[in-house]
């Protein structure tokens, strides 16, 4: 573990993976100087609130739902795409909450997920060029160009692959606009449970699954009708409580120059939260006392920002006492450890390709106060997990670290148990999360140029992870999914993953395949996962086995190509 003093720029002394090379260094520094002066995107108050809620997840008192795009595009910074993504996460969380009776911590891959790691820095692409041997004719010629690294690095168009520092500013302002609209929606009642829900299961082809889904929704609507009365929405004035929710932002922190520029100290600053008021006080589920900060009302600390103070006694004894008290206060302040926050998002994570113990990314992550994620998988040795936990969380803060397992349905049995055992042998309290997407990517059989994922693999990895944690006496605290609620002009969901209750087949992928990176679950498949999770979590709290209808039916309808 590094003992050298940490600074937001100390990562520059370490070897770095997935680095971006900018030709114009002066231009890059000008952009970074601008970013350092721009306001933070999120506040330390919000970040600390998320860390408290993740501590509840680690203790089994809440469930973590994290999801969103593989890679955001600047063009998607528009009202409809944002509303569709937000709507899916909210509906999924509502279904999970109803089944589990646990508060759901919602983290979106949004407002900053613009960069992507790539296995190779370059790729071969086809270019149409003039055929010198035949006047007036063209031919296709393969050329090697830089890989698309995300909208905050370069463009998807083949002619726009040189890294451009101005895109870092573009990422900041698009993130700002996205965050602003999300906050506007939440404050305007977008998540208000008093509003009737428009549930439609026309996409579900299986009568058995349709019946199971409808039964869950009927029960959910009954509960919401009860809450309308209980909170005063019917026959009386509003007593509030379920009009809005917390929603936190996240992204993979790849471009450390950008992250460093938005790393801010809490020293000498007063920060306030700009997110909607929490609705936890009226949530009729598990108490969130761990997540709330209580300040004694009989102390000056109850009024930390008030310019008014109780009058001092004029006696010499009291004057001396107050002087010594002030000295002790100043001494305590001088001993207070300075905290640094990454204000580009509430939650950031280290990817599978950038978690080298002696690398730049681990060095950067070890100094920030944000809750962080670490991707773990088959290539990570159990002792490596312990070493990286010691580096990034030496104070053993609960809720600080989320281990995001990305093993694949075929390998989770082989690697997850040893990773759990390694962490259990320490005093680290982590959030265990299942990323059931990245270990299950395959090529389409119909069009090998398209990447896809089979829904059966996604739910298999989730259910296997739940079973392994149950056997080990630990808790699978949440899931991490690449998904989207977006639709095309005709209103059809994306077709990038095979299977689910829609029974999408391999030949259906090209119908509405929109991703520029990895395939995502669509709206209907996202709800499928939510129902599956709700079924398992409900069965867990009741001490029952999960219903076969949701698990076996969805698993059996994998969407494999049919003759």
Automatic annotation (TrEMBL):
Record region (Disordered): 262-317
Keyword entries, A-Z: Amino-acid biosynthesis, Aromatic amino acid biosynthesis, Cadmium, Cobalt, Manganese, Transferase
GO process annotations (BP): amino acid biosynthetic process; aromatic amino acid family biosynthetic process
InterPro entries, A to Z: Aldolase_TIM, DAHP_synth_2
Pathway the protein acts in: Metabolic intermediate biosynthesis; chorismate biosynthesis; chorismate from D-erythrose 4-phosphate and phosphoenolpyruvate: step 1/7
Transmembrane residue ranges: none
EC numbers on record: 2.5.1.54
Essential cofactor(s): Mn(2+); Co(2+); Cd(2+)
Catalytic activity: D-erythrose 4-phosphate + phosphoenolpyruvate + H2O = 7-phospho-2-dehydro-3-deoxy-D-arabino-heptonate + phosphate
Family statement: Belongs to the class-II DAHP synthase family.
Polar residues composition-biased segments: 270-285
Top-level class of the enzyme under EC nomenclature: transferase
Binding site for Mn(2+): 70, 438, 482, 518
Name of the protein this chain belongs to: Phospho-2-dehydro-3-deoxyheptonate aldolase
One MF term in the entry's GO annotations: 3-deoxy-7-phosphoheptulonate synthase activity
Binding residues for phosphoenolpyruvate: 109, 375, 406
Entry's cofactor comment: Binds 1 divalent cation per subunit. The enzyme is active with manganese, cobalt or cadmium ions.
Compositionally biased intervals (Low complexity): 286-299
Pfam families per the UniProt record, alphabetical: DAHP_synth_2 (PF01474)
């Amino acid at each position: 573990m590094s003992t050298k003093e940490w600074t937001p720029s100390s990562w520059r002394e370490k070897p770095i993976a997935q680095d971006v090379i900018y030709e114009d260094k002066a231009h890059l520094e000008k952009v970074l100087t601008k970013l350092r002066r721009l306001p933070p995107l999120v506040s330390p108050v919000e970040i600390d609130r998320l860390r408290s809620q993740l501590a509840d997840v680690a203790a089994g008192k809440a469930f973590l739902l994290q999801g969103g795009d593989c890679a955001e595009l600047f063009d998607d910074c528009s009202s409809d795409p944002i509303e569709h993504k937000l709507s899916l996460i909210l509906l999924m969380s509502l279904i999970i909450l109803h089944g589990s009776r646990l508060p759901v911590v919602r983290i979106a891959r949004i407002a900053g997920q613009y960069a992507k790691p790539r296995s190779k820095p370059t790729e071969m692409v086809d270019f149409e060029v003039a055929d010198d041997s035949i006047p007036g004719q063209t031919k296709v010629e393969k050329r090697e160009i830089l890989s698309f690294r995300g909208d905050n690095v370069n463009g998807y168009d083949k002619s726009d692959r040189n890294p451009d520092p101005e895109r870092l500013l573009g990422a900041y302002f698009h993130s700002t606009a996205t965050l602003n609209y999300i906050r506007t929606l939440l404050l305007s009642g977008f998540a208000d449970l008093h509003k009737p829900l428009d549930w439609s299961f026309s996409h579900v082809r299986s009568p058995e699954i349709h019946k199971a889904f409808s039964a869950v929704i009927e029960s959910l609507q009954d509960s919401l009708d009860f809450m309308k009365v209980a909170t005063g929405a019917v026959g009386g004035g509003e007593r509030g409580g379920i009009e809005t929710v917390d929603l936190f932002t996240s992204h993979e922190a790849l471009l450390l120059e950008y992250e460093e520029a938005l790393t801010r100290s809490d020293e000498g600053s007063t920060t306030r939260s700009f997110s909607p008021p929490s609705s936890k006080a009226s949530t009729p589920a598990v108490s969130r006392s761990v997540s709330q900060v209580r300040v004694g009302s009989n102390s000056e600390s109850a009024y930390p920002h008030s310019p008014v103070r109780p009058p001092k006694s004029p006696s010499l004894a009291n004057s001396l006492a107050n002087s010594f008290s002030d000295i002790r206060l100043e001494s305590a302040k001088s001993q207070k450890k300075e905290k640094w926050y990454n204000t580009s998002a509430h939650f950031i994570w280290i990817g599978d390709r950038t978690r080298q113990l002696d690398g730049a990314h681990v060095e950067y992550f070890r100094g920030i106060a944000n809750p962080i994620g670490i991707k773990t998988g088959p290539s990570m040795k159990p002792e490596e997990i312990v070493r990286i936990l010691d580096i990034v969380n030496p104070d053993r803060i609960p809720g600080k670290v989320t281990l995001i397992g990305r093993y694949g349905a075929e390998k989770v049995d082989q690697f997850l148990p040893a990773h759990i055992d390694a962490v259990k042998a320490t005093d680290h309290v982590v959030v265990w999360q299942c990323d059931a997407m990245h270990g299950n990517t395959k090529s389409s059989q119909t069009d090998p140029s398209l990447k896809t994922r089979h829904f059966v693999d996604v739910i298999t990895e989730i259910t296997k992870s739940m079973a392994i944690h149950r056997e080990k006496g630990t808790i699978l605290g949440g899931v991490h999914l690449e998904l989207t609620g977006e639709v095309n002009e005709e209103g059809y969901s994306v077709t990038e993953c095979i299977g689910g209750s829609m029974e999408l087949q391999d030949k259906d992928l090209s119908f509405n395949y929109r991703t520029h990176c990895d395939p995502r679950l669509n709206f209907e498949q996202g709800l499928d996962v939510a129902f599956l999770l709700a079924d398992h979590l409900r069965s867990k709290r009741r001490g029952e086995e999960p219903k076969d209808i949701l698990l076996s039916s969805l698993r059996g309808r994998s969407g494999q190509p049919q003759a």
